[in-house]
Design goal:
heterotrimer; A mainly alpha; B alpha/beta; C alpha/beta; A: mainly alpha; two-stranded antiparallel sheet; globular; B: alpha/beta; 6-stranded mixed sheet; 4-stranded antiparallel sheet; disordered N terminus
Amino acid sequence: MDYFGQLLANGLVLGAIYALTAVAFTLVYGVVRLVNFAFGELFMLGAFLTTSLMLPEVRLFGTVVPMPGFPLPIAALGAIVITGVIGVVVDRIAYRPLRNAPRLAPLITSIAVSVVLQSLAQTIWGAEELRFPQFYLATLEPVVLFDSIYLSVMDLVVMATAIVAMLGLSLFIARSSLGRAMRASAEDQTAAMLVGIPVNRVVAAAFAIGSGFAALAGLLYAQTYGFAHSSMGFLPGLKALTAAVLGGIGSVPGAALGGLILGLVEALGAGYLPNGTAWKDAISFVLLVGLLYMRPQGLLGRPELNSAGRGSLLGGASAAAGSWLGGLFAKGDALLARGAAAGTPAAFGLLAVAVVVGLMVPSDYWLRILTMVVIYGMLASGLNVIVGFAGLLDLGFVAFWAVGSYLTSILFVLVLKDGYGIAPQEVWGLLYLNLPLAGLLAAGFAVLLGTPTLKLRGDYLAIMTLGFGEIVRVVAINWMDLTNGPMGIRGIPAPNLFGISLGSPRAQFFFALALAVVVVFAVARLVRSYVGRAWVAIREDEEAAEAMGVPTARYKLYAYATSGFVGGFVGVFYAHSQQYISPLNFSLFENILLLMLVVLGGLGTFIGPFVGALIWIAFLQLALDLPFVQAYPETRFALLGVVLIVLMVFRPQGLAASARVGLTMPGARAKEAA
Amino acid sequence: MAEIVPIIHPTVQAERPVEPLLKVSGLSVAYGRIRAIDGVDLTVEPGRIVSLVGSNGAGKTTTLMALSGLLPLAAGKIVFAGEDITGLAPELRVGRGIAHVPERRRVFAGMSVRENLVLGAYSRGDAMEIAGDIERLTSLFPILGKRMNQAAGTLSGGEQQMLAIARGLMSRPQLLIMDEPTMGLAPQMIDLILDTVLEIRKLGTTVLLVEQNAVEAIRLSDHVYVMRLGRVVHEDSGAGIDPERVKAFYMGVDA
Amino acid sequence: MTALLEARQVIVRFGGLEAVGGLDMAVARGAIHGLIGPNGAGKTTVLNVLTGFIRPTAGRLVFDGEEIGGLNVNGFARRGLARTFQNIRLFGAMTVLESVLVGAHQRFSASAPALIFGARAARAAERAMIARAHELLAFVGLGADVSDRVATTLSYGHQRRVEIARALMSSPKLLLLDEPLAGMNAVEKQEIADLVRQVRAQGIAVLLIEHDMQIVRSLCDHLTVLEYGKLLADGEPEQVLADPAVQAAYLGRTR
């Protein structure tokens, strides 16, 4: 059988599935300028719903429930309709109140919706794969084309369905009244309202159709690969977003083209490149990053979409802000504002509290948890520099963290111990050298990754940095010689000072606390100077900042470098604290989690990242005591997602937002007060 | 207040007193802390051309946007055809008979001329009559007939303005609101657009006009409101208004 | 004496549209220069060209004897051209003092380690600039009590003043104001006009776009009038405003 022909067939099937999902992203982005990350999860729901409707019985919440056992076409239709309705409900609850909110809010909300849907699916259908029942067409003999390409009947069905669906949608958008209204709303919402188009309903329709397309893609994927699983939507969702951006987000033919290109490149790359299967995910993201650098608007897109830049990251209000919940927050705000105004004394007070807690807490278990709070708080502080202060949405921050962790782990374990047989205790001091070294390395890396993103704004920037983060992760998995690949690196020594091991949970907590003091102090000094003022000015209004003489490109790179330094610095300690690292520690999910912590706590504050980390990690533990959560542990994530959505809708600026950071040197103003 | 004497439309005069088509009282709009317009009262009687004139920043466009529901009101009441429409969503006002041709035209640039026109009729239930209306509008704007399948963004400024007006008329409005229809157009095109305004009234549609060419606006209007700093400072019939006084408002000479 | 800023044969095209067509203008040292013209004449486009926001399709810009056409925006600012915006653009979350300090960005040079370890020189620079910011806030007529308020919560008039203080913080040679009086009442307008005169008294030239001809007449030393992106008139205010062509551009021509 012809190898190329087979790869081509695989690529076409995969491309068809990517294209259908890409349409969902493109349709919604076109109308409301929202990257709805949750389409990956709607894709997954489509697969689960179809599979469930086709089976005679399914285990839901651990109990066997009889199901109708429909044939594929009917089950598929049912799944598409149900998913479409879910999409509309999600829009109504989670996105519509945020139409005029700060521009990060809907993006974060869509990530939270993803988390909720995924953990709900895991709660309902369980953590196991659900086998896709065989449809009778799948048992037929494959079709042979040109004597060499074997296509199963179902592969043909997948391609035909995709083509029919795309043509149908194109026709619908071109000819129907609703399709025209969609295009009009995408071009100019105000003008659309003036001719009498109910824009909210048009948006709901875009969500319904987009969700239906995602569901269709998901069920075709489940059929092709034979299973449904709660995490199955994540990577195809990202790929589809990549495809949409590749083709030019907002353009339906672009989505089709992007999906097709991506499917083919992946299939052919996997087949022909050395060790290609392992690298195929990286191929897609390299393609994405390269294209965004050279042609940000995508192949068929319009350039003006790369301009979500203006408008405050934090300003603007949610439609729901004035409610009773808003009033509740106001009370806490006064306290926070007073604390922030106190500045250094307040910081010392908090540090004293942390020290007392570290001395008093009796259980090792809770000390470990508190150490994680401090580590995540520090990492979130690093991310906060770039996102919270400079206003650049970075989804590739974990890469800097990984650089630090891997640097120290490789030196200690792979080079010194395995290579030269030197015991870690003999070179304990290297850890203290590695901290700044990793910081500098990661900072350099950050500048390298930051440079091509300088032209990009808003959502495009987020997508490009996401691509970088994924590339780094795939490299970490596959560059076996350097990183030990997916097995990770074991036996990283615990921190050590003059031969005394600091491995005990209490010692580690205080070590972490000491590093946190360094990180917060250094970041605070930078922020409370002309550098921080330049960052915030860029965040609030890049053009105006430039007009005031701020070289914005250079200051964006400074923000990347600072953020990278913190990531690398903390990464070193993280590796020694965990004593084991693997690429799984540095996934996109971790990056999203860190972003959520910063947003939860309050972007652009010093305390916010730690507040976010404390709430999240304490929540994870405390939720385990709830009976419902004990029965279904996965619902913890769903609950966090719900908390985040509620927070975004009612208080998009974050819990500790009023702990406003002063941007002048504390000492410089002391004299003036006297 | 001066007696309002319509000079061009004797029929309207004969039917007086007429129920006003649009009655606006105490209209106020604030952008943040700034009151962009403050207590504007307007009355538009059916079958007339009414103009708002005044220098830049006087609040003319803000007034129009408030009338079509694009801006929330700080205070005031809008009664249209005997019905209070103050809180009505903008897309629903089109169905009641108000069409707004916005400043800078805002045609759907990526869509064809025909599609723009069809969209203009979005609020109407009678899909069957749309083709006939497009036919009729192309006799008013022959150039659009020749450009029917061309993307609106490729039209010249004047052609785009005609399209924007035609799109507004497609909803079969009782009141056509036009905001700066001649802005940025060449003199010949300005003449053509202003002639069209008179044509539209002949067809029975009432016009509320904001026009930078104050001399012409006054000449073709039945009634003129002069705005300054967010308030109506003067009103009169088109013939009754003193051009010197308007000039004073524009050129900053105390009258 | 040569002009401070000279634009020669500046052309700006957006797609097929010519927004500025071969403009020549010169701003003299120490002058208050008004840039006026009807809506859509291209005034803001010209201001954007003169501050580097728009790179002209063709033409030269010479500032203080130096060719500046190829610089990016912050380069314009660093050479001594500071501006304000038509719709005030203060930095959302910053206090008045912090916003104004951003204007002095180019005067700071401390390295990251110097900032982190609190070097004496870095502190001294910060103190000096804070003192200067307070001086300028007083100069634009803002009391010490506003310096720690978030700038965007101030009244509109005060925000304008903060924006002017921010622009002056860079010690510019030319201050460009895009409609600094828009949305103000008569008293506030006079106050800002007085402020502009005081700026000139410091030896800083001012270029401003304004619609209120009464103010323009009394404030400006020189006027440049634009229409359709081209120079319509240029000269002393009284003479320019009496020009029938200028009056027609504002009020419209009779047909």
